[in-house]
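Sample pair:
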Amino acid sequence: MVKPQPSRKQLHPEEQSRFEAFLRSRELKYTGERKALLDAVFASKHHFDADSLHLSLRQKGNEISRATVYRTLDLLVQCGLVRKQSLGDQHAHYEAVHGDEHHDHLICLNCDTVIEFFKPDLEAMQESICKEFQFKPLHHSLQIFGICRACQAKGTEGLDIAHRVSQLHA
C-alpha cells in the first residue's frame, strides 16, 4: 500500500503563512506556481541554483517559467525564507532558511563541494568582537574557499584554481 503524501499545510505551514502574508502586503497573489516553488525549496536539503530548481520543477510536470522561478526566489529572499549566496562561481546559490539556524561554509574550488559547519566557539568569538567594538551585528556569513580532503587525496587540483581564487574578489 502506498502511503499518501502529506498535504501542503502539513509540510510547511509557518513558511506558507509567512510567504502568503508577505505577498499580500505587496498586493501579489500566492499562485500555484509559487506554492510549487516554495515546496521544492523546502524539500531541498542542499544549496541549489535557480536553473537547477527550474529544471527540477519542469521535470515534475510544473509548467513554470524560468522568469517566474527567478522572481519568486527574489521574493522568498526578501521575505527571509531563502538565503542567497555566492559560493565562488559566477551565479547565485540559494538555500531554505529554517528558523534561526545558522551555519558557515567550506567551499572546494576544485569540485565545488560545499561543507556546512557550525562552531559555537567561533560564534562566541564573533559576538565578543562585536561587543568589544560596540557593534550591533545583524547578519554574518563565513565562507572559506580551498581544496577539500577528497581532491587533496586524489591530487586533482586543477590548473584553474589560481584563476578561481583571483575571481573571488572580482
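The chain has two domains: 8-96, 104-167.
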